[in-house]
Amino acid sequence: MIKLQIIGNLGKDCIVKEVNGKNVINFSVAHTERFKDSQGNQKERTTWVECAYWTDRTAVSQYLTKGKTVYAEGSPEADAYMNKDNQAAATLRMRVQSLQLVGGSGVDNPGQNSGSGMSSGSAYTPAATPAPVASAPVADDLPF
Is-contact 50 28, C-beta < 8 A? Predict the structure, then answer.
């Protein structure tokens, strides 16, 4: 099994749909990586992941709004296609198996705590404090 883990910000509010009697929450997560190129110039690269979270507990959808930070784990899937300019492009998708809201309350919802954990088959329960998230080393911090 291949497992994908991503921490990033939602690009827009989630969409809840019912498909064949089952609920799915669709959302997109962006992760921006900052690094220096071989000439020492600061660069940025953003990767988007289209996520599908199949769950009976859709209450979490009220917290999945644009700009919120989430941690998601699941199975990856890549789709290649030709874009409107007739150039090869790809989409990274993930079938979410567990989802966690990361960080404190957002600017648009100042009274809400968004630190909680969810996984398929478990109930959504707001947590008192957000879970710690380890950060990946920056390219300059690597020992080689």
Answer: yes
Pairing of strands 42-54, 22-36: antiparallel
CA distances from 34 to 9, 30, 72, 133 (A): 15, 13, 20, 18
Which range of residues forms the domain containing residue 82?
A: 4-141
Q: How many domains does the chain have?
A: 1
pTM: 0.67
pLDDT of 90 reads: 86
β-sheet bridge partners, residue 121: none
Over residues 17-35, the pLDDT tens digits come to 999 989 999 999 998 899 9
Count of Cβ atoms closer than 10 Å to residue 18 Cβ: 9
Q: CA end-to-end span of the chain, whole Å?
A: 30
Query: Please, what is the Cα angle at 57 between 55 and 58, to 5 degrees?
Result: 90
* Residue pLDDT, tens place only, 83-112: 999 999 888 999 999 999 997 554 444 333
Q: CATH number for the domain including 87?
A: 2.40.50.140
